[in-house]
Design a protein that fits this description.
By secondary structure, this protein is an alpha+beta fold. It has helices at about 1-30, 40-55, 60-65, 125-135; strands spanning about 70-95, 95-125, 140, 145-150, 165-175, 185-190. The protein has one domain (about 1-190). It is about 30% helix and about 40% strand.
């Protein structure tokens, strides 16, 4: 009898944080989970690219040297022990959108809060770009390693020092979770309404 009560109390102790986590994520993601149109995504991508140019000195040179750039603006993460992250964006080649993508990831651990950030992946080789485009669900750290660059006011990112096939930036992070990685994030093709 005591063993059954102990098992029930353990389940309740784990159920409460899970329920709170799901409720937090539902509130946090509610605006972001509604299906966006291609036009809405393109507008958000343009605004994110403007932020990128303001925050990273040498951004124009880096973008010009890349074969393609994935822009995931306003990626939201919410967590209470269990975390979830979601965002929608576009792959741009020569300044034009060629495909739309979503990113999603989950995590379990000691975490609480919410955050919004822009993610940029610059594909510096044709091979890295083609591998990304051919995948049915590309996962950072598994299907391709991303070299993250540090940035800030006055920091210059020079393409002559960048030899990695994929360069990543997480910028404009706002919120209570200090998470600047995308390891484990999965990127999947979207087909939004026009």
């Amino acid at each position: 009898m005591k063993a059954k009560l102990f098992q029930k109390s353990r389940k309740i102790k784990w159920a409460l944080p899970m329920v709170l986590s799901i409720a937090l994520m539902a509130v946090f993601f509610s605006d972001n989970l509604s299906a966006k149109t291609a036009r809405e995504i393109d507008v958000e991508v343009e605004v994110a690219i403007e932020r990128f140019h303001r925050q990273v000195i040498g951004a124009e040179k880096l973008i010009g040297a890349s074969k393609g750039m994935l822009v995931m603006p306003n990626v939201f993460k919410g967590a209470f022990l269990i975390g979830g992250e979601y965002g929608e964006g576009a792959l741009r080649i020569d300044g034009k959108t060629v495909d739309y993508y979503s990113t999603a990831s989950g995590s379990i651990g000691l975490q609480i809060g919410g955050q919004k950030k822009d993610i940029f992946l610059l594909f510096m080789t044709d091979e890295a770009l083609q591998q990304f485009r051919d995948s049915k669900g590309w996962e950072a750290g598994l299907d391709g390693n991303v070299a993250f660059m540090k940035y800030g006011a006055g920091v210059r990112e020079d393409t002559t020092t960048t030899k990695d096939p994929i360069i990543g930036f997480v910028i404009d992070a706002k919120g209570l979770i200090a998470d600047f990685s995308i390891k484990g994030a999965k990127f999947s093709k979207l087909d939004p309404e026009k």
